[in-house]
Amino acid sequence: xxxxxxITKSYTLPGQQxxxxxxxxxxxxxxxxxxxxxxxSGSGKTTLLNVLGTLDTPDSGEILFDKEQLxxxxxxxxxPKALAKFRNQKIGFVFQFHHLLSDFTxxxxxxxxxxxxxxxxxxxxxxxxxxxxSLGLSERLDHLPSELxxxxxxxxxxxxxxxxxxxxxxxxEPSGNLDSKNSRMLYELMAKLSKERKTSFIIVTHxxxxxxxxxxxxxxxxxxxxxxxxxxx
Length: 233
Ligand SMILES: Nc1ncnc2c1ncn2[C@@H]1O[C@H](COP(=O)(O)OP(=O)(O)O)[C@@H](O)[C@H]1O
Ligand SMILES: [Mg+2]
What we know:
Elements: E1 2-11, E2 19-29, E3 34-39, H1 45-52, E4 60-65, E5 68-72, E6 75-76, H2 80-90, E7 91-94, H3 106-118, H4 121-134, H5 150-162, E8 168-172, H6 180-197, E9 200-204, H7 208-211, E10 216-221, E11 224-230
Parallel strand pairs: 3-9, 3-10, 7-8, 8-9
Antiparallel strand pairs: 1-2, 1-4, 4-5, 5-6, 10-11
Helix pairs in contact: 3-4, 3-5, 5-6
Keywords: ATP-binding, Nucleotide-binding, Transport
Organism: Chlorobium ferrooxidans DSM 13031
GO molecular function: ATP binding; ATP hydrolysis activity; transmembrane transporter activity
C-alpha cells in the first residue's frame, strides 16, 4: 500500500552544520495493516510521519502509494494542487492534541474534509453522523470540542481522519493527552478500524503496551527504523 525507499532528511539551522534526522528509512505497509513506531523523543518520529504524509519534503529517496510514484529524484511527481487533493482524499491525520476547530460542533468538524472536497454540506453531515455513531458518539454530535472529554475529542479526530475513506491514517501520539483507560480504548478502536475498513494505520506512540495491540512495531533509533516484534494476533 505504502512504500518508502531510502528516505533521508536533515535539518540545517542558520550558521550550523546539517543534522541528519532520517538516514535511509525503508518501510513497507500493507493494506489494513496497523504499524506502531516507538522511539526516544527527538529521534525523528514526527518528521517521518510528516514525510510519509507529504506534509514535509524529504531530501532524497522514493515514496510509492498504491504502486504509484509520489516522490522521486528529490521532488514530488504531482503539482502542489494535485498533491493537496491526494492528501485530502487518501490520507487521514490524527495529532497528539485533537486540532478540532473549537467553534464547530463534533459533526461539523467531522463533515469538514468532505465538505472541502465536494462543497456539499448535507451529504457530508449525514456521513459524519454515521461515522460518529459507529465510534460510539451518537449522543455527542452537536457538542463543541470544549464540551467533550479528552477521549471523546480524540474519537472525533479519528472520525474526521476517516471521513474521506483514506487508504492510510497517520497518527502522532494520539493518546499523548489521555489517561491509560482511554488510551487503551483508542488503540483498540484503531486496531478494529484497520481490520474492518482495510485502512492502514501508522501510529507513533511512546507506550509499548499499546504498541503490542498493533500488527507490527518498529523502533526509531539514530535515524533508522528497526524491526520491533511481530504481534501475535
Ligand atoms: N523544522 C525543524 N527545523 C530544525 N530542526 C527540526 C525541525 N523539526 C524537527 N527538528 C529536529 O529534528 C529532530 C527530530 O524531531 P521530531 O521528528 O519531532 O522527533 P520526535 O517526534 O521523535 O520527538 C529533533 O532534534 C528536532 O529538534
Ligand atoms: Mg514527535
